[in-house]
Design goal:
mainly alpha; four-stranded antiparallel β-sheet; 19 helices; 6 strands; 65% helix
Length: 421
């Protein structure tokens, strides 16, 4: 009997798009008046019933419209997309989305999200160049050799570094390559294979969950919401530190228990099999962390630091961010002495591996376009706000937690979830 596979994120999003198109025939159409900041003449543009009017960009104007947002959030670029004006919702003539609108929605979504998509592809190329240098593997092997006899430090460093990768650039599936390198080290130190897996899996999961500069979650979601991704950055950093610390302590506690009594390992029944599989000599090619690879790791890290500084201080956006990773890839290629054809192939392969993510972003944005063009997005917002009005903040946040847990089963993509929700 053929085993059934769960549909891909792209397929699920297309089904959602079709469902949303059908909803535009059922849900009453409605629209809020919108407000946009005009930087050129320092005014607010109000769109109301197809008419446009200008008002002075001042805190008094915002208060008059019952918008409880500081003026500086508009003037500094933190909010750059139109926002709905409270208490202005009105029903409008229906504009149901048909078959052709549904078919065109992914293409429209890709065009509208092209700036984000190009950033994602350039980051993919950047990581592709980094991967062929072997710097990641060399760094892990170097730590393993240096910390023989002090493997608990390796637990801390590995989990922390993988978590940093997750929070900054969405390090996830790529970490699987580290598991065969780490497991023999931990088994030799009288731990079990689960310790090595936990360092990688928990580290990357916590990092992605507490994304600070992760372009596949935080930056994409912020762009879809029309706010700067630096908004709330300090809170996310605190959450990252707390969650990473808890994860490390949890792994250390388990590792100590297993080292003292191997029978307490949750995979004790596989102990001999694991030792036979990973205890011998590894056929993995060991790359020495030489001076050149240290420079490459430095350039890799610096690229993300430059991106953060550029966005927060110099007000860069997607074009400038993508340029940083292109320059970073070129510098790494130069230091690693990668020839032109290998560089192009590695960059293209790395970008190609994230093409699926690019389609997810485009399709998810297409869902938003169907809702917007069908005039049901404001209707959903209006009714949702009516339900949650007066709700305790703690109850509201926990309700969202369970909603996202449920959605994650159907949309197994942080990028798709970020744009869609």
């Amino acid at each position: 009997m053929k085993k059934r596979k769960f549909p891909s994120a792209q397929t699920i999003l297309l089904v959602i798009a079709a469902f949303v198109a059908l909803l535009t025939w059922v849900i009453p159409s409605g629209k809020y008046d919108s407000l946009t900041y005009n930087k050129l003449d320092n005014t607010f543009i109000i769109q109301s019933k197809g008419k446009t009017r200008l008002i002075p960009a001042s805190q008094k104007s915002l208060e008059h419209l019952n918008i409880k947002i500081p003026l500086e959030n508009f003037t500094n670029g933190a909010i750059y997309k139109p926002i709905s004006i409270p208490d202005t919702y009105e029903k409008v003539a229906a504009n149901p989305q048909g078959f052709f609108e549904f078919v065109q929605s992914p293409i429209k979504g890709i065009i509208e999200a092209s700036d984000v998509i190009f950033l994602v592809l350039f980051i993919g190329g950047f990581i592709g160049i980094m991967n062929i240098t072997g710097a990641f593997d060399a760094g892990i092997v170097w730590m393993s050799d240096v910390l023989i006899g002090r493997e608990y430090i390796l637990i801390i460093l590995t989990t922390l570094l993988v978590a940093l990768g997750g929070t900054t650039f969405g390090f996830g599936e790529e970490t699987l390559a580290f598991i065969p390198i780490l497991i023999p080290v931990f088994i030799a130190a009288k731990y079990d294979a689960m310790v090595g897996i936990a360092c990688v899996f928990l580290g990357s999961s916590v990092g992605s969950m507490c994304s600070t500069t992760n372009p596949f979650a935080t930056i994409i979601a912020s762009d879809a919401a029309g706010i700067s991704w630096t908004t709330g950055l300090y809170g996310r950093v605190v959450m990252f530190c707390v969650c990473t610390t808890i994860s490390i302590l949890y792994i250390l506690r388990y590792a100590k228990r297993v080292k003292n009594d191997a029978a307490k390992s949750i995979i004790f029944d596989q102990k001999e099999e694991m030792e036979k599989l990973f205890g011998g000599s590894s056929e993995t090619k060991i790359i020495k962390l030489n001076y050149k690879l240290r420079i490459i790791i430095f350039l890799f890290t610096t690229s993300f630091i430059v991106m953060v500084i550029g966005v927060s201080v110099l007000h860069w956006w997607f074009t400038e961010m993508a340029s940083v990773f292109l320059v970073g890839a070129l510098l790494i290629g130069f230091v690693a002495k990668i020839n032109e054809s290998d560089f192009v192939n590695a960059f293209s392969k790395g970008a190609g591996e994230l093409l699926g993510v690019a389609f997810i972003i485009g399709i998810a944005r297409g869902v938003s376009i169907l809702m917007k063009d069908g005039y049901i997005s404001d209707t959903v917002l209006y009714n949702t706000s009516a339900i949650t009005e007066g709700m305790n903040k703690g109850v509201f946040v926990n309700a969202l937690f369970f909603i996202y847990n449920g959605l994650s089963f159907f949309i197994p993509s942080s990028s798709g979830m970020a744009v869609l929700s």
